[in-house]
Every structure is written in structure tokens, then in C-alpha cells.
Amino acid sequence: MGIEVNFEGKIALITGASSGLGARFAKVLAQAGAQVVLASRRTERLKELRAEIEADGGAAHVVSLDVTDFASIKSAIAHAETEAGPIDILVNNSGVSTTQRLVDVTPEDYSFVMDTNLRGAFFVAQQTAKRMIARAKGDPSKKHRIINIASVAGLRVMPQIGVYCMSKAGVVQMTKAMAVEWGKYGINTNAICPGYISTEINEDYFASEQGQKLINMLPRKRPGKPEDLDGLLLLLAGEDSNFINGAIISADDGMTAT
């Protein structure tokens, strides 16, 4: 009895891998034995991450990806499969936000968030799933995993980030729709909804007076760490999640329980 973590022979594509949670997801899957394909616009940072992974004995590839550009999505996925092989696992992680009141949102602000968080995430998953479905039709025993990174902001409204909340709520519903339509092809599609996670992107904010006030409002008065998502990531990416499809799982230290 017990869960065995072994991703030898698996290919995992991680979008938004240049920093933050995406970089952590890539390292964790590589440590578990998967070949990881690192995708984002910041390819120089991806090359640095690839070197770190390879130094630890892992295997990594770099592809340039702009999720707001459909042609870039198609090219990146084709490049990933040429470089590494057929994608078994997609970690759909790219995301951006703005901080403003809804009355101040411009069309450009709206498109900036929605084009990455919802439209981009959809077409990355769609183009990856098309290839997964084609393989499953040839071999019904094939199993694939799509993990969409949503947010607790997709489950409850938070001040000053209304458009971000809307985009992540869309990812939640998108995940369920994909699970229903693609499950028959052996594709398990689930979403992780992280709470407040401290990364290099926001650690200065959490150290500020305003950030400390926010932390004191959390159930256990602490932000999470990227490694707090490791177990959930490995579960959803692995064979032990065979009966988990269409799940929206919060990892927020009890935030959405209040």
C-alpha cells in the first residue's frame, strides 16, 4: 500500500515556467523523473531553470510561448513534442493580473488579463488535448493529465482584482467542461486553486505593512510556500488520480472555508 511517485518516461509541459509556481512545478516533476518542457516568453530565464534542473540530474527542454498568440501556442506545442516526445501532462499555469477598481478597467486592461488567463489557457489546453485525443484513439490505454492552475479568486471575489477573479472563475468552469468532454479519451482534467502563496514575485509585498495586514486576516495568519502545492501537483499528474476528473481543489490553508 502507498503512493509511488515515479514519472519516468513521462513528458510534462509547464506554461508560465519562468518564475514563481511554474518554475516550482517544473522542478518537482523533473525530480520525480519526468522530462519537463519549460514554456514562457522569457526564454533566457527558462534556460537558467533548465540548467538548474539538469544540474540536479533532471531533463528539461525550453520552448518559447506567448499564450496570447494562437500561432505561438500551436508552434510551441509542436516544438515541445518534437524536442521531448508526446505530452503526457500539461500544467496550464500562465497568468497575469492588474490591481484596480472595476470602474477604472480599460479595454486594454481587460484584454491583458483575459487573453492570458482564460483565452490563452483554453487554447493551450485545446491544442494539447487534440494531440492527446489522437493518440488515445490509436491506443485507448493511453492516459493523460491536464492540470489548470486557477485560484481561490475564481471561487470568491476579492477587492481590487475583479477582472482576475472573473478570469479564474472562467478557468474553473473551463476545467469542468474539458473534464466532461475529454474524459472518455483518458484525459483527466482538474484545477488547483491556490490561496496566497509567497514567491519571488510578491515576497516584497508580503513583507510590507499592507502585506502584513493581509496576512493577519488569513485563517492561520501565514501565506503558503510554493512547496505546499507539491503533493497535490504530484497526485493530479500521476496514475493515482485515475478517478479524479473535473475536480476543483483549493489549496488555501482554509481561506475558502471561512
TrEMBL record:
GO biological process: fatty acid biosynthetic process
Keywords: Oxidoreductase
Keyword Oxidoreductase in record: yes
Stored InterPro entries: NAD(P)-bd_dom_sf, Sc_DH/Rdtase_CS, SDR_fam
GO terms assigned for molecular function: oxidoreductase activity, acting on the CH-OH group of donors, NAD or NADP as acceptor; quinone binding
Coiled coil: none
Similarity annotation: Belongs to the short-chain dehydrogenases/reductases (SDR) family.
PANTHER family cross-referenced by the UniProt entry: 3-OXOACYL-[ACYL-CARRIER-PROTEIN] REDUCTASE (PTHR42760:SF133), SHORT-CHAIN DEHYDROGENASES/REDUCTASES FAMILY MEMBER (PTHR42760)
Protein name (Swiss-Prot/TrEMBL): NAD(P)-dependent dehydrogenase (Short-subunit alcohol dehydrogenase family)
Species this protein is from: Duganella violaceipulchra
Lineage: Bacteria, Pseudomonadati, Pseudomonadota, Betaproteobacteria, Burkholderiales
